[in-house]
Amino acid sequence: MENLPNCPKCNSEYTYEDGSLVVCPECGYEWNPNTQEEENVIKDVNGNVLNDGDSVTVVKDLKVKGASSSIKIGTKVKNIRLVPDAADGHDIECKIDGFGAMKLKSSVVKKA
Ligand SMILES: [Zn+2]
After folding, report:
1. pLDDT, tens only, 10-40
2. CB atoms within 10 A of CB 102
3. What is the distance of C-alpha 47 from the center of its chain?
4. Can you give the C-alpha Rg of the chain in angstroms?
5. What are the structural domains, with CATH classification, of the chain?
6. How far is the CA of 33 from the centre of ligand 1 (A)?
7. For residue range 85-110, what is the model confidence (pLDDT) as tens digits?
8. Gap from CA of 71 to ligand 1 centroid (Å)
9. Taking a C-beta distance cutoff of 8 angstroms, is the pair 64, 70 a contact?
10. What is the 15 CA–ligand 1 centroid distance (Å)?
11. Cβ(79)–Cβ(62) below 8 Å
12. Cα of 57 to ligand 1 centre, how many Å?
């Protein structure tokens, strides 16, 4: 078995090669592993590439709708999950202590 990348959509490890494409049998997604990385790459405020599971630091105070306090600059966020196709531009899902599950924009974080 070659070491194929996990599915970028559902993170399945049961991907297989089909010509130049890699196919995910679980969600049906097909992609070219040689170009995918550049198409779906999400970068932090400094242009560093972010990956699922990374830890990041918030680089500015963020008002949270419905919360009594804001997320402060310098807040550490562990184990982010990337959402490359986020329609509203919030391309990071994460949990923040005291706030719970949140969506952030990659433009307000830097890789920790
Ligand atoms: Zn998949």
Report:
1. 999 999 999 989 999 999 999 988 765 555 7
2. 17
3. 14
4. 16
5. 1-34 (2.20.25.10), 53-109 (2.30.30.40)
6. 13
7. 888 889 999 999 889 999 999 999 99
8. 33
9. yes
10. 8
11. no
12. 29
Query: What whole-number distance in Å separates Cα of residue 72 and Cα of residue 62?
Result: 7
- Shortest CA distance to 67 belongs to which of 101, 44, 90? 101
| Alpha carbon distances (Å) from 55 to 3, 29, 42, 75, 77 | 25, 27, 14, 11, 6
Tell me the CA–centroid distance for residue 64 and ligand 1, in Å.
Answer: 32
Structure tokens at 30: 């097909």
Going from the Cα of 24 to the center of ligand 1, the distance in angstroms, rounded, reads 5
What is the edge-to-edge ordering of all strands in the sheet holding 109-111?
76-77, 56-58, 109-111
Residue 92's SS3 state is: strand
Distance, CA 49 to ligand 1 centroid (Å)? 21
